[in-house]
Amino acid sequence: MDVDDVSQKPHDRLGAWLAPDMDRVNVLIRDRMASRHAPRIPEVTAHLVEAGGKRLRPMLVLAAARMCGYDGPFHVHLAATVEFIHTATLLHDDVVDESAQRRGRPTANLLWDNKSSVLVGDYLFARSFQLMVEPGRMDVLDVLCNASATIAEGEVLQLTAAQDLATTEEIYLQVVRGKTAALFAAAAEVGGMIADATPAQVAGLRDYGDALGIAFQIVDDLLDYGGVAETIGKNTGDDFRERKLTLPVIKAVALADADETAFWQRTIAEGDQAEGDLSRAQEILARHGAMEAARADAIAWAERAKSALDPLPAHDLRDMLVDLADYVVARIR
């Protein structure tokens, strides 16, 4: 793969530049997801890990470390750590959401059972903590532990906020920072920390990951109401069927008349959905410009991510991270 091929997608170019490091990350992941006593652990883990995905989170660790001049071994451990944390949360999320598809494939809880998904997720969390200790950096450990707690907190907050029509954009942002942006931010931040980057550079990397993660999640919310199943890795309308109060819906609820409020109350708050409700939801979103407003928010967060990289040194990887922020929102421009 030619890293100078500008026709490639940014994450592909990033992956090509980081290929030797990513190969080491993948070897470490395969080694640490093994279990002598419970063969179901590598079976369930491999189903999800080998399903693909862009591996953005581990690549953020590697890119940040390399951009800041790191030449040691432990960026690989930290990259594997964030991938394990991410994979564990996916296993747990699919149980909570009763999902049947992930990355275009049947979910682990569908192929095995909920108990296996939850317990294997727990195992991966434990493995992630073993990995994050190995560099011997308490500051790095602190960031990753806090991110793990924030992720869990965000998921619990979503349980109470997802079907509550009183949920505001501020609460939505708290949920997104927990379920998505926290790990993006931690991945970029610890990459800079392991390289002993300056405080301004570390802060810039953290802010980049935070803004990129928020943009990423808003785009995912938008595509759920207008994407293609093969592109988004799940069925269009899953968020609506799962009664998730995502950003476009929050914006539409804020502008709803009495009839529309009753519709959202029935379909989202009470879960009483009928044939044609998804189409009506899409019509209401369009009527109030909710999709366009959410789209503008996503683009603004992508711009914020790019600006956060200003303290970082000139580097091919920095250019790729800028392009990545643009790419995240390119499908909705």
Automatic annotation (TrEMBL):
InterPro entries: Isoprenoid_synthase_dom_sf, Polyprenyl_synt, Polyprenyl_synt_CS
GO biological process, one term: isoprenoid biosynthetic process
Domain of life: Bacteria
SUPFAM superfamilies hit by this protein: Terpenoid synthases
Cofactors (names): Mg(2+)
Catalytic activity: 5 isopentenyl diphosphate + (2E,6E)-farnesyl diphosphate = all-trans-octaprenyl diphosphate + 5 diphosphate
Keyword vocabulary terms for this entry: Magnesium, Metal-binding, Transferase
Pfam families xref list: polyprenyl_synt
CDD domains (alphabetical): Trans_IPPS_HT
Role description: Supplies octaprenyl diphosphate, the precursor for the side chain of the isoprenoid quinones ubiquinone and menaquinone.
Family: Belongs to the FPP/GGPP synthase family.
Name of this protein: Octaprenyl diphosphate synthase
